[in-house]
Backbone:
């Protein structure tokens, strides 16, 4: 009698455990097939102002710190922001918008923006506008 009850309950308990594991996994892990964008560098090819630009990036809904650039200067992405600020999740089939912005006292100058789709890539993105020319290398990795 007791053995029969145990046998009947075990598969049910197993099913509940599996469902619970599946739920908690979905809450912690990013959506399957999503991507991560990481800004690796920012290079000033041609400044918007003289003698330095004050540049920050908008990466999705994050904003980096502002850093000065002289003409020809390259900075690592990690110099502009922490990991949260220079990386962004991209949903499957979606994209993230990155903007290069020059900081000014009243109204900042947007040098340019580009869209990054959820697709494995390593690219040297050129961004020009407002008389300035920047290069923003980035990588996109597919998340498991
Ligand atoms: Ca400025
Ligand atoms: Ca400006």
Residues:
């Amino acid at each position: 009698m007791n053995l029969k009850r145990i046998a009947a309950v075990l598969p049910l308990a197993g099913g509940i455990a599996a469902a619970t594991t599946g739920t908690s996994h979905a809450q912690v892990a990013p959506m399957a097939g999503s991507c991560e964008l990481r800004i690796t560098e920012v290079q000033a090819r041609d400044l918007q102002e003289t003698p330095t630009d004050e540049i920050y990036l908008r990466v999705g809904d994050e904003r980096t710190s502002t850093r000065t650039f002289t003409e020809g200067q390259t900075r690592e992405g990690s110099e502009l922001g922490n990991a949260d600020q220079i990386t962004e999740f991209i949903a499957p089939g979606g994209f993230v918008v990155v903007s290069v912005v020059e900081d000014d006292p009243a109204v900042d100058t947007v040098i340019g923006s580009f869209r990054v789709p959820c697709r494995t890539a390593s690219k040297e993105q050129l961004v020009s506008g407002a008389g300035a020319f920047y290069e923003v290398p980035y990588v996109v990795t597919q998340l498991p």
